[in-house]
Amino acid sequence: MIPDDAELGRLAERVVHQLSARAYMLGVAESCTGGWVSKVLTEVVGSSAVLDRGFVTYSNDAKREMLGVPAETLEAFGAVSSETAQAMVEGALRHSRADEVLAITGIAGPGGGTDTKPVGTVFIAWGGRLGEEYVERAQFSGNRESVRRQAVARALQGVLDRLEDSET
């Protein structure tokens, strides 16, 4: 199911509420979503108390310069990889005051896909105070906007999952 604006807004509200309840700050490192996670979070009243900063690192140069993703990682695994998503999380943690970070890198289309990484392949990573870093490979369907919407929703849901898991 492709989330609409209302669903993304509800997820963002839940994330802001849960982060606020813990006095945690979130950092965001985005590539294929181009700042969309930050956009939906900042539409929520009170987000300024929980969103530390966002990095839009669309190019490989930006990933290296802003987040410190090693050139070797990008060359060996590509910008769309588990390794790069993990390095983006690590860089965002180093370059922010965030307690938790999420990172997204993927192929939204319509071009750019390969046999091993078709259009719709997205890697989402989370890390920080709530436990070990976790990277997930997702395969989303639909057009460019659909892939991006689904990636934003999954990234926000992943933050909620980490917050809820930390309660037990």
In a nutshell, what does this entry contain?
The protein is an alpha/beta fold and 168 residues long. Helix content is 45%, strand content 21%.
Task: Please give a structural write-up.
With 168 residues, this protein is an alpha/beta fold. It has one domain (5-165): Alpha-Beta Complex (Maf protein). 45% of the residues lie in helices and 21% in strands. It has helices at residues 5-22, 36-42, 60-67, 71-77, 82-94, 144-165, and strands at 26-30, 51-56, 100-106, 121-128, 131-139. It has a 5-stranded mixed β-sheet, sandwiched between helices. Strand 1, helix 2 and strand 2 form a beta-alpha-beta unit. The longest helix has 22 residues, at 144-165. 43% of the residues are buried. The model has no long low-confidence stretch (mean pLDDT 96).
Task: Please provide the count of β strands.
Answer: 5
Q: Low-confidence parts, pLDDT < 50 over ≥5 residues?
A: none
The helical percent reads: 40-55%
Largest sheet features:
5 strands, mixed
Order of helices and strands: HEHEHHHEEEH
- The CATH class label is Alpha Beta
Strand order of the largest sheet: 2-1-3-4-5
Helix run count:
6
Give the tags.
about 170 residues; alpha/beta; Maf protein
